[in-house]
């Protein structure tokens, strides 16, 4: 499945990070005004995700692809987006993007990240990924259990 291109408004920061981890190209437009959001979605052929009914209606009226998320629940929203656009709620690190900056992450060697990652982490883990842009390092640590639990909940919500 090809990665989807989304544009999220200021209300969907957490959803933005989830979609990036799942491998989708997501631009987060924190404080951009509605007119600019719609123009950007059309110009870059991105699907506008929003919780703002007025913005959604304007986007549809201006022929931008948009999807309205009415719930404040992040897991529910993640499930709805996955169902609507037909993608799996499973992380594949070969296609994952940096949750912080949207750049595709790359496998990293321990020797290259030794000065960035805590010493204990290097002792307990052997697989690492790094964002080539912001240099954030990722590994399947104890937080991975929570990530898998959230994705499992979202799969059940679908």
State the gist of this model.
With 158 residues, the chain is an alpha/beta fold. 41% of the residues lie in helices and 16% in strands. The chain folds into 2 domains: 81 residues, 3-Layer(aba) Sandwich (Rossmann fold), CATH 3.40.50.2300; 52 residues, no CATH class.
**Annotation field: number of helices:** 7
Specify the CATH homologous superfamily of the largest domain. Response regulator
Distance between the first and last residues' Cα: 19 Å
Q: Briefly, what CATH class of the largest domain?
A: Alpha Beta
Q: How much β-strand is present in the residues?
A: 15-25%
Poorly predicted sequence stretches spanning 5 or more consecutive residues: none
> What is the strand arrangement across the widest sheet?
2-1-3-4
**Mean pLDDT across all amino acids:** 94
Query: Total number of β-strand segments?
Result: 7
For the record, the count of structural domains works out to 2
């Amino acid at each position: 499945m090809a990665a989807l291109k989304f544009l999220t408004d200021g209300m969907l920061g957490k959803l933005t990070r989830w979609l990036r981890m799942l491998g989708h190209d997501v631009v987060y437009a924190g404080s951009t005004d509605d007119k600019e959001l719609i123009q950007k979605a059309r110009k870059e052929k991105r699907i506008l995700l929003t919780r703002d009914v007025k913005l959604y209606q304007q986007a549809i009226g201006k022929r931008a692809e948009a999807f309205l998320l009415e719930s404040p629940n992040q897991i529910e929203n993640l499930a709805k987006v996955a169902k609507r656009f037909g993608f799996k709620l499973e992380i594949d690190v070969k296609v994952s993007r940096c949750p912080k900056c949207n750049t595709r992450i790359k496998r990293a060697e321990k020797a290259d990240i030794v000065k960035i990652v805590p010493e204990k982490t290097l002792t307990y883990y052997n697989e690492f990924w790094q964002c080539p842009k912001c240099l954030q390092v990722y590994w399947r640590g104890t937080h991975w259990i929570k990530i898998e639990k959230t994705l499992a909940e979202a799969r059940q919500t679908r």
